[in-house]
Specification:
Layout (H helix, E strand, L loop, with lengths): L3 E12 L2 E12 L3 E5 L6 H8 L9 E4 L2 E2 L4 H6 L1 E4 L11 H11 L4 H14 L15 H13 L5 E5 L7 H16 L3 E6 L10 E6 L2 E7 H5 L3 H9 L4
Parallel strand pairs: 3-8, 3-9, 6-7, 7-8
Antiparallel strand pairs: 1-2, 1-4, 4-5, 9-10
Helix pairs in contact: 3-4, 4-5, 5-6
The structure holds adenosine-5'-triphosphate.
GO molecular function: ATP binding
Pfam families: ABC_tran (PF00005)
Keywords: ATP-binding, Nodulation, Nucleotide-binding, Transport
Amino acid sequence: MPQDALSIQNVSHNFGSFQALKDVSLTVPRGGFTALLGVNGAGKTTLFSLITRLYDNRSGRIEVAGHDLRHKPGAALARLGVVFQSRALDADLTVAQNMEYHAALHGIPRREARVRAVEVLAQVDLSDRLDAKVSALSGGQQRRAEIARALIHRPQILLLDEATVGLDVKSRAEVVALTRELTRGGVSALWATHILDEIRPEDGLVILHKGEVLAHGNAGQIGGDDLTATFLRLTGEQV
Ligand SMILES: Nc1ncnc2c1ncn2[C@@H]1O[C@H](COP(=O)(O)OP(=O)(O)OP(=O)(O)O)[C@@H](O)[C@H]1O
């Protein structure tokens, strides 16, 4: 069993002559919560697009749960769950119907799909909203349903791309806490964010800036007493 849920080694990416990622290396341990911290334009979404194969990765190596994305894409992607910035659920269908639809996309048979829907909605504390339309859920509940959708095929790692965008403070805290809880249950998380107070000292941390990894390790060790000050010093950003 590989040590890391995700391993990225020496990955670069260009848009024309613009280098959006420069020799990026990072790992996400199994069962860990790792924050990918960067300001707008740092390269977070580009990196996720390479991991999900939206973009072709031409340099370095990406492994998901030990499976090389270039040579074994099916095995790698089967172990990956993604919570996109954009919405992936159909607002006019019920929560359960959405889960079953996404289960079908993963080739999960109908009867098993219902079992999985109940299972993942319990994981995100939405068991009582199974038959509600997605349009009737609050913003926070919708994000939790998006996370449930990403869990339907029992992935080993979740990529979450600014999963709390647009949520109020309370819902934001709930969604981060829920994701941490999931990692205690065994799934790993790579949590892309630009919000420093979503990160705790015990988390893994990757600071990405202008396409480069500036720091990678334990958040408490990197940030010391003041993660904000450390982030500003490393990136040269101003508040
Ligand atoms: N399709 C594209 N064509 C050209 N440049 C792009 C494209 N997509 C992203 N970029 C550029 O690549 C850089 C990284 O963008 P990316 O969206 O990955 O950053 P991000 O960290 O996800 O930012 P945000 O928090 O705003 O989503 C930015 O300078 C962006 O303008």
